[in-house]
Amino acid sequence: MKLKIVSALVTALTLTSAQADVLGIYIGGQVWDSNASGIFGESGNQVDFNLKDKKQGSYFLAVEHPVPFIPNARISATSLDSTGVATLSRDIEFADQAFTAGSVVNSNFDVSYVDYTLYYEIFDNGLFSFDIGLTGRDFEGDIAVSSTISTSGNTSTVKGTLKTDEIIPMLYASTTVGLPFTGFSVFAEGNFLSFKDHTLHDYQAGISYELIDNLAVDVSLTLGYRATSLKLEDIDNLYTDLEFKGVFAGAVIHF
Question: Which residues form the signal peptide (predicted)?
Answer without folding.
Answer: 1-20
